[in-house]
Amino acid sequence: MKLNVNFRQRIKIPFVMALFMMLSACQSIWDTSPEFGSTINGAIQDQLVNPNAPVGNQKVTKGLDGGAAKGAVDNYQKSFEVRVPTSSGTYPAGAVMGTSSGAR
To answer: Residue 87 in contact with residue 93, Cβ under 8 Å?
Structure first.
């Protein structure tokens, strides 16, 4: 017995199956459990050294003095400058090509 399935039926069956699968993924109500996300929140809390850090701290930090703050900002800005090499070769200063430190 030979099944006579035409082209439209061969296309229609996978299309309907795919449609049902896509519609089943669209859920109108998402009921989360009360402890949803507690693992992530617990991991974040475990990484804190002192969760009550601001409580009971009598020493108030007012900030840096002017000279230290300016020095920090200047050093930060200098870290982005591109430095041009001063020597013509690729060897470090003081290195001479063809010498070795071993004795013969």
So the answer is: yes
**Distance separating alpha carbons of residues 96 and 87, to the nearest angstrom:** 13
DSSP letter at 39? H
Alpha carbons 65 and 80: distance in angstroms, whole number = 24
Tokens at 52, concatenated: 């009550």
- Report H helices in 1-104: 7-25, 38-46, 66-78
Which residues make Cβ contacts (< 8 Å) with residue 97, sequence separation at least 6?
A: 91
pLDDT in tens, 31-40: 777 888 899 9
